[in-house]
Inverse folding.
């Protein structure tokens, strides 16, 4: 069975209010601009996740809400998972392995360095996930627990400035 894991790093966050905790930092103007752009790209590619999981941090959850809206999902369809905040590769693989097998496409919203580290584990070509980057991996696996221990069949990285001339 083909399974698709989509990792999306949150959009660029704002550092304007130094009194805010790391969890409370909102998206910056660039994050608010880039998230709908990436959502539109995903929509054009026909991405339809069966499950959307997000870190509870403001910038990640805001990014998830923007993407979900562009893809035709409501905010109530986003599930927050505390483990996605400040997670490392081991934790992310645990989250992946625990996914329900009926889900064929799952989208996770979270943070670096964990997301880049996991993306790099699945594809050595991915060495950096800029803000608002999307890494998409497909696996031929009977379950998510098997997929978590496999190499993906395909790996694709997209980000807002990809293909933009400087």
């Amino acid at each position: 069975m083909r399974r698709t894991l989509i990792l999306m790093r949150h959009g660029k966050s704002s550092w304007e209010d130094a009194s805010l905790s790391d969890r409370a930092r909102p998206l910056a103007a660039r994050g608010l601009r880039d998230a709908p752009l990436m959502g539109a790209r995903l929509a054009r590619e026909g991405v339809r996740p069966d499950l959307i999981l997000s870190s509870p941090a403001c910038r990640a959850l805001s990014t998830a809400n923007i993407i979900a809206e562009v893809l035709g999902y409501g905010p109530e369809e986003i599930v927050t998972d505390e483990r996605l905040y400040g997670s490392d590769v081991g934790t992310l693989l645990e989250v992946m392995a625990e996914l329900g097998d009926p889900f064929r496409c799952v989208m996770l919203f979270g943070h670096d360095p964990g997301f880049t580290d996991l993306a790099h584990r699945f594809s050595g070509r991915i060495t950096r996930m800029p803000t608002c980057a999307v890494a998409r991996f497909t696996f031929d696996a009977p379950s998510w627990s098997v997929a978590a221990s496999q190499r993906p069949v395909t790996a694709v990285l997209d980000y807002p400035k990809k293909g933009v001339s400087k």
In short: The longest strand covers residues 2-9.
